[in-house]
Amino acid sequence: MPPLGLAAQAAFSLLSFCLVFSCAANFISFVSLRPLQREKPRPETGDAGHYGWSSILQDTRVVEPLSLDLILLGLFILQHSVMATVTVRKWTSAWFGVLQRSVYVLCTAAALQVLMMYWQPVLEGPELWSVRTEPWNSWVVLTCFIIHVIAWLIIISIALIYDYAELMGVKQVYYHCLSLGDPMALKSQKAQRLYCHLRHPVFLEFLLVLWVVPALTLDRLLLAAVLSLYLVFGHSLDQQDYRYLRAQLAKKFEIFSREETFSDPMALNGSR
Fold it and tell me: Transmembrane ranges (predicted)?
């Protein structure tokens, strides 16, 4: 391929990476910072204890935003699932070649950006739980903030370990420019199988981000419930994948224990 073609592919890959990174930052703000910020007093809608689900489902101020939010979630999940199918992956690979992964993550980021842009908070109706009285309000918000920070740090660490450059499609273009082939082809068959089945490398940490909030509104409940179900049913791991993961973790712990032993002077002296 001529240098101009390689430069265009590299530029598109880097642009896709920057846009996806920006979308990820917006998503962190959307799912963590906004719920943790102190909200303005909500409109007086009566005592939440007197709410009944029948009256809630008949209130257009509640039903309409929830319906729009559900449609947005459905469209995002549909886009993410369809583009992850084998048929669509083959089609995008045939059309875009080495840029297939970059196109995939860019389309997913665009769908996620649309979801965040048009998401409608439910300002009416009850909250399933809420801590608004001092001093517990400040302590609960601070505790939730610490949990979210730790969870996101773990998520970012897992993404880096999981080969973030390859997840974003940058590594594929880099290898292609250097004529090194597909980086996925260098992995073992078991690793390739795991990558195909495990579409979401984080689970527990993201559940904490979704559910650990000082106030659970109806729209937050919808977001947390739908994404939690998608995380549960969005992968196709089987016993073979679990055995491979356990074997890899056992190797990591064995290497780590050996390094700890060799770096301990007392252990070295004792072995002599």
Answer: 103-119, 139-162, 194-214
